[in-house]
Task: inverse folding
């Protein structure tokens, strides 16, 4: 019996992310299908677009310069950018685990986070170099400049693992995300390859299948946020649909107008954002019908990180926008809470009052 999706590979969650990206690059459509689109708010246009084949070729080159191997932790202090996502995929190509630091936190919090990770390498983007200097030595791990991983010189030849080399498996750690630290120091949450693939499968179920995500996703949430990393990067490799990154991520304030222009130009099937943005859209139902109409064209609008007020949910629903709130993606290995129906109602995934433990 066949699986529930249009593409056979979508039922296979016993893989690693390096294998997922490689399979996408080898697919017949890899030279035509966009993997990542860079949206410029300054020009209100797509500044760069990479197909799956182009993306994986560049990612593998960056991974060869990065080095590392099975189960090594590569720690990133970088704004989201095309090169950041290429480097993260390059780490997967080397069978490493990706660790994302919250670049909005002070150096003192980052030093604590670094102390909890046995890092094999650190990758730093230029705008965050001063913050990296404040953090310190990174416990002796080599520090790489992000742009140097993608210079014009040929990458070193990739070393083929010997017959006895350990290969990454579905149960190995793929990503480490840190909690916000709102209840104390940030805590690292390891996420396995298989767990994240199950999360992406759950998101696809929420969408109703591959055909409903073919136009891709837009989420300009930061890369240290599990929604920004999983729902708009890993999910795209899994479903082989285009993701999006904001060119001005280091400086631009995400507003309704910025997001509306990006949605209007890229016409995604999925938008992942935060409640404050959707509250602003709800407040525009009367004054900005053009904005509301743009959001209403999106198949699935999700938001997380905080409750969406009931009044905003009701106003959006009345205007044809049916947001899907979700919680706990970091704690539940990135996306577990996306299971369920997009029209499940405003109370779906609200924190249960008095609940202190969920046993699964």
Result:
């Amino acid at each position: 019996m066949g699986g529930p999706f249009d593409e056979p590979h979508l039922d296979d969650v016993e893989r690693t992310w390096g294998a997922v990206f490689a399979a996408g690059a080898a697919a017949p459509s890899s030279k035509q299908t966009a993997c990542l689109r860079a949206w410029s708010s300054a020009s209100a246009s797509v500044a760069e677009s990479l197909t799956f084949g182009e993306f994986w070729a560049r990612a593998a080159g960056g991974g060869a310069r990065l080095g590392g191997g099975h189960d090594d932790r590569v720690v990133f202090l970088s704004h989201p950018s095309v090169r950041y996502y290429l480097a993260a995929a390059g780490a997967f190509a080397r069978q490493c685990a990706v660790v994302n630091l919250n670049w909005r936190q002070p150096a003192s919090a980052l030093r604590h986070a670094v102390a909890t990770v046995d890092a094999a390498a650190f990758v730093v983007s230029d705008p965050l170099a001063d913050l990296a200097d404040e953090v310190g030595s990174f416990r002796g791990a080599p520090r790489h400049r992000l742009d140097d991983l993608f210079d014009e010189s040929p990458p070193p030849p990739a070393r083929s693992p010997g017959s006895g080399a350990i290969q990454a498996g579905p149960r190995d750690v793929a990503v480490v995300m840190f909690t916000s630290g709102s209840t104390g120091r940030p805590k690292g949450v390891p996420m396995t390859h298989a767990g994240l693939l199950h999360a992406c499968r759950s998101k696809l179920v929420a969408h109703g299948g591959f055909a409903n995500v073919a136009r891709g996703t837009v989420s300009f949430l930061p890369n240290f946020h599990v929604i920004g990393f999983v729902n708009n990067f890993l999910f795209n490799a899994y479903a082989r649909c285009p993701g999006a990154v904001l060119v001005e991520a280091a400086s631009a304030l995400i507003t309704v107008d910025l997001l509306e222009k990006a949605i209007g130009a890229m016409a995604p099937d999925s938008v992942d954002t935060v409640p404050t943005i959707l509250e602003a859209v709800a407040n525009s139902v009367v004054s900005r019908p053009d904005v509301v109409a743009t959001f209403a064209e999106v198949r699935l609008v999700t938001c997380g990180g905080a409750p969406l007020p009931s009044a905003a949910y009701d106003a959006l629903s009345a205007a044809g926008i049916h947001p899907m709130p979700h919680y706990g993606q970091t704690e539940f290995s990135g996306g577990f809470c996306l299971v369920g129906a997009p029209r499940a109602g405003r109370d779906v995934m609200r924190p249960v009052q008095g609940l202190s433990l969920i046993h699964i």
User: Anything to note?
Assistant: The two ends are 28 Å apart (CA to CA). The longest strand covers residues 34-40.
